[in-house]
Amino acid sequence: MDLPANMPDIYAEVIVDSFASLHGGRKRSSALLYFANLGAQYQFDSGFSFQGELWLTDNQSISDVVGDEQGISNIEASEAGLHIGTLAMGYKSSSFSALVGVYDINYHFDVLQSANLFVHSAFGMGSVFGISGPNGPSTYPQPGLTAKFGYQRGKHSIQFAVADGEPGDPLFYYHTASQEEKRINLLVVSEYAYESAQSKLLAGWWGYNDDSVVLQNAGASRGKNNGFYLRTEYRFKPLPSEHQITVFGRAGVGASKFNFFDEFYSVGLQVRGQLWSFGDEKFGLAIAHARTSDVRSPEYGSDETALELTYAATFNNGLTVQPSLQWIGSPGAAREADDAVVLGLRLSWSFN
Predict the structure, then answer these.
(1) pTM for the full model?
(2) Residue ranges covered by each domain of the chain
(3) Which of 65, 121, 170, 190 has an alpha carbon within 20 to 30 A of 306's alpha carbon?
C-alpha cells in the first residue's frame, strides 16, 4: 500500500461529568463520570485510510441515582477500563465510500451535529434505536465489527451497513437463559440523506435478523425487531443578529414486542455565536419524549420525557465548560416515580 500523503492525524479528548440529583428520582445524590479517547488516522493518496481509537471509560452512573431509562449522560458506560473504540480501514472517492472494522455506527448513522451539543443520550441516537437489540446496537460503549458502504451524488447520499447484532460477544453470537444454542444476530442499517447549505434531512431503517429477546407479556417472538427514523435540521441567521440558529427534530418507531420504547420524538434548537464573549459559545434547549411499548409490563407508565437546557463555551486551548440543567419526567416510565431535576457540569478538553 502507498505511504501516507500527510502526517497521521492524532487527536485526543477527555470529558468529566459532574451531576447532582436535586429533586425526585430514586434518591438525592451525586455522581462523577469520566471518558477519554486517543486516536490516530492515516490518509493515503489512493483514497484509503486507517483509523484507530482507544477509549477509557468508568462505571459510575447518574442514571442509577435517578432511575431513568434513556440516559442522562452520553458518556455513561457499564464497564470501567481501556477498550478499542475504533479499528477500521476505509476508502473514499468522489462518490463512493466504504468502512470496515470496529467502530461506533452512531458516528455515521442517526446523527446531527446540532443535537450533539446536548449531554443527554436521547439527543444522539434516538431512544428506540439506541437501546434496541439484546445488548444495544453497535455503538458506545460497546462498538462491534461493522461493514459500511455509501454512495453520494450532489446533495443526495445513501449508506448501508451490516453490524454485530450483540456487540460485546465474539463472532456475533449470543444466547439467552431460555436458549442453550448460540445464534447469529446481525444488525442492518440503511440511511438516505439530503444536505444543502442550510438544511439536512435523514431517513433511516434498522433491523435485526434474529430476535430472541422479547418484552415480558409480548407473547411468542414472531416477526423481526426493526424500526424507522426521520430527523432534520435547519440553520439560519436572523437579521440583524450574527448568531446562527439551528432547529432540529427527530421521530422514530420500533417493533412493540421487542423494544421497551416503541415511539420517540425530539425537538430542539442550538444558538451559536458571541453570547457573553467567552470564546466559541453555544446555547441549547431540547426535549425528548419516549413512549413505552403497548405490551410493556403493567407496572410501567406510558412514557419518559427529558428536557435539557445547556450552555457551552469553548476556549482557544481546547477546553470546554458546559453547565446543564435537566428535567426528567416519569424516570424509567415508572408509574409512581417522581419527576427528577438534575444539575450537571461537563468539562472537556480536546486536542488535534
Answers:
(1) 0.90
(2) 9-351
(3) 190
